[in-house]
Write a structure and sequence with these properties.
InterPro entries: GHMP_kinase_C_sf, GHMP_kinase_N_dom, HddA/FKP, Ribosomal_Su5_D2-typ_SF, Ribsml_uS5_D2-typ_fold_subgr
Shape: globular
CATH architecture of the largest domain: 2-Layer Sandwich
Largest sheet: 5 strands, antiparallel
Protein name: Mevalonate kinase
CATH topology of the largest domain: Ribosomal Protein S5, domain 2
Helix content: 40-55%
Strand content: 15-25%
Number of helices: 10
Structural class: alpha+beta
Order of helices and strands: EEHEHEHEHHEEEHHHHEEHE
Number of strands: 11
Keywords: ATP-binding, Kinase, Nucleotide-binding, Transferase
GO molecular function: ATP binding; kinase activity
Radius of gyration: 20 Å
Length: 312
């Protein structure tokens, strides 16, 4: 048995802001993927994944008791499959901000959800919000608190535009120009970031009035503008807003940026060769970069592992 593939995602814009109703834009990233598998594999990885899935199944059983109207699962089949050694075979790195638990949640819902909302039907806003609510509840097992966006992106394999908490839609983004010099890239920080502590830190900072004001008047303002610019293909305006956003993050989200990247972040802003921003909750994992000239960025970041994800 091998289930369908579910891909990683990249939240281009909206990290932290979407908690407070900023816009957001999330795109599938097909470089990493995962699938449910059953085999007699006795590898450490398969055993670990199987044990983790058994704990998740227990959580889903409790969740179903509390929220029968929201979602029901074929728990019997799920438990049988787990007893037969099912595991999640994934190349998606954990703790890197590209949705490893999101792909797993999407795979479980796809295989064991009863009366599930499918990708083939007309996805109204109500259906998207219901899916987001289901996925948020499911993924909370891994993150303590989840918006449900990562699994939604993985499940639909479409770009998702977040207008506000109650207003999300699938969207299209300008098609890639593979000869273009502009690029979105991932920078490997070389360390793992944990979502829960970072979100907790953010919530603590939100208790300060100055931080809340900055979030509303600067962070959300530039995030919203970046989303608009990216979707409409307004590159000149996009990079103006990206520079501002990168600056705001460096000034106000320092704990979420690995220390050894503070100078690199600043150099990008000062040289205009590239602009960095958080990829997911930060604290490690990947850092997201944008450049108008990928050759310049590669030269400036020659000591780092750089992976291009989108060209324009």
């Amino acid at each position: 048995m091998k289930g369908p593939l579910f891909y990683s995602k990249i939240l281009l814009f909206g990290e932290y802001g979407i908690i407070k109703d900023s816009k957001g834009l999330s795109i599938p990233y097909n470089f990493f993927k995962g699938a449910l598998k059953s085999s007699n594999k006795d590898t450490e990885q398969a055993k670990k994944s199987n044990a983790s899935l058994k704990a998740f199944a227990t959580y889903l059983e409790e969740m179903q008791k509390e929220n029968t109207s929201l979602v029901t699962f074929d728990l019997e089949t799920l438990k049988d499959d787990l007893d037969n050694g099912m595991y999640f075979d994934s190349s998606i790195p954990q703790g890197y901000g590209v949705g490893s638990s999101g792909a797993l949640v999407a795979a479980i819902y796809d295989k064991y959800g009863i009366d599930k909302i499918t990708v083939l039907e007309n996805l109204t806003r109500e259906k998207l919000l219901k899916l987001k609510a289901i996925f948020g509840k499911m993924e909370s097992f891994y993150h303590g608190n989840s918006s449900g966006l990562d699994p939604l992106n993985s499940y639909l394999s479409l770009p998702i535009l977040i207008n506000s908490k109650d207003n999300i839609e699938s969207t299209s983004i300008p098609s890639q120009n593979f000869d273009g010099k502009g690029a979105v890239f991932l920078l490997d920080s070389g360390s793992i970031g944990e979502t829960a502590p970072m979100v907790h830190l953010f919530m603590e900072q939100m208790k300060q009035e100055g931080f809340r004001t900055m979030l509303k008047n600067q962070f959300i303002k530039h995030t919203d503008a970046c989303v608009e610019d990216f979707i409409t293909g307004n590159i000149k305006s996009l990079f103006g807003n990206l520079k501002q956003l990168s600056n705001v993050v460096l000034d106000n989200f320092k704990p979420m940026i690995p220390v050894e990247f503070h100078n690199l972040w600043k150099q990008g802003i000062e040289s205009n060769d590239y602009y960095l921003k958080l990829c997911g909750s930060g604290g490690g994992g990947y850092i997201l970069g944008f450049t108008e000239d990928i050759d310049k960025a590669k030269k400036a970041l020659k000591d780092y592992n750089l992976e291009v994800v989108y060209n324009f």
